[in-house]
Design brief:
By secondary structure, the protein is an alpha+beta fold. The protein contains six helices and seven strands.
């Protein structure tokens, strides 16, 4: 059994395991220092083994902790991809969950002020009697 049978590149595994949407997104996270393996910051080409512990820094200060249970180099169905790791992230306290929900509602409200699209411009012109 060669080392390539028991290891896989970190960025590939993060993509296959659906931790990130794309491999390039996983590479950017590794380059930015958002991913740690066994307590040390690593680059995207690091070889990952079964039993390694990953700490992934997520937006808004959230930290996700994963333990590698399996390896795969090719994409698999999402259910099988979730079986490649165990998520040991502690559950979020209820009050923090409520704060994040309120932030999400606030940010969604901020994005409503946008420039009118083609259909809305036509409706505005019609209301003003210029069409």
């Amino acid at each position: 059994m060669t080392e390539s049978d028991t290891t896989v590149r970190l960025d590939i595994w993060l993509d296959v395991a659906c931790v990130f949407k794309t491999r390039s997104e996983a590479q950017r996270a590794c380059t930015a220092g958002k991913v740690e393996v066994n307590g040390e910051r690593v680059k995207s080409h690091r070889q990952l083994r079964v039993g390694d512990r990953l700490d992934v820094n997520r937006p808004f200060g959230r930290k996700q902790t994963l333990v590698v249970k399996g390896l795969a180099e090719r994409h698999v169905p999402k259910a099988e991809a979730r079986a490649l790791y165990t998520d040991t992230t502690p559950p979020m306290p209820e009050e923090e969950r409520e704060i994040r929900r309120m932030e999400r509602i606030y940010r969604a409200g901020m994005h409503r002020a946008h420039a009118p699209d083609k259909r809305e411009r036509r409706q505005l012109r019609k209301l003003k009697g210029k069409a």
